[in-house]
Write a structure and sequence with these properties.
Number of strands: 5
Helix content: 55-70%
Order of helices and strands: EHEHHHEHEHHHEH
Bound molecules: adenosine monophosphate
Strand content: 5-15%
Distance between the termini: 10 Å
Shape: globular
Number of helices: 9
CATH class: Alpha Beta
CATH topology: Rossmann fold
Largest sheet: 5 strands, parallel
């Protein structure tokens, strides 16, 4: 199996790229943000809980997120591999993912990170908010809080995967095609 963590700050283009790469490599794309949004739309118990955090740009608690992620993986038992998008976002999520995959005799082949500067991203997110229908993309204060969560809790994951020799940074500035090609060069080697 090819199991890849697609990493990067909010607005880096993870969702767009994962949608293209899952086809190319026949992988299952799991976006924890999308799963939460689906649950919010359908007013499930999980959705009601997640909404409180997402509306503020805060991370949803680890326990809830980890359980949800495991359930999504288990729904796709015959997958060729996974692209994890938006997960893990904390060190304890990364450890839980490693332990969970290892129970299945699997592992993360690599963290592939889209590297883009924060100022460019705030502009992109505000632009996306005009059409995405995402309430967390329309308020600059909430966007800044998502970056704060990213910088304080998520950015450390670079070190976590680097220590395993599994971190691959990719320049995330350019056209969608250019970036897909850069990512594919890394995916091919994993
Ligand atoms: P995203 O679609 O990846 O930008 O995620 C949108 C929001 O969903 C985040 O700001 C968090 O509130 C929540 N979320 C998504 N993935 C996670 C995760 N792995 N851990 C905690 N919260 C998450």
């Amino acid at each position: 199996m090819k199991n890849i963590v697609l990493f990067g700050p909010p607005g880096a283009g993870k969702g767009t790229q994962a949608t293209l790469l899952k086809e190319k490599y026949n992988l299952v794309h799991i976006s924890t943000g999308d799963v939460f949004r689906y649950n919010i739309k359908n007013q499930t118990e999980l959705g009601v809980l997640a909404k409180k955090y997402m509306d503020e740009g805060d991370l949803v608690p680890d326990e809830v997120t980890i359980e949800m992620l495991k359930a999504e993986v288990n729904k796709n038992a015959d997958a060729n591999g996974f692209i994890f998008d938006g997960f893990p976002r904390t060190e304890s999520q990364a450890k839980a993912l490693d332990a969970f995959l290892s129970e299945k005799g699997e592992q993360i082949n690599g963290m592939v990170a889209l590297e883009v500067s924060e100022d460019l991203l705030v502009e992109r997110l505000l632009e996306r908010g005009k059409t995405s229908g995402r309430t967390d993309d329309t308020d600059e204060g909430k966007i800044r809080n998502r970056f704060n969560e990213y910088n304080t809790k998520t950015a450390v994951l670079k070190d976590y995967y680097q220590a395993q020799g599994n971190y691959f940074g990719v320049n995330g500035v350019g056209s969608i095609d250019e970036i897909t090609n850069r990512l594919a060069q890394v995916f091919d080697k994993l």
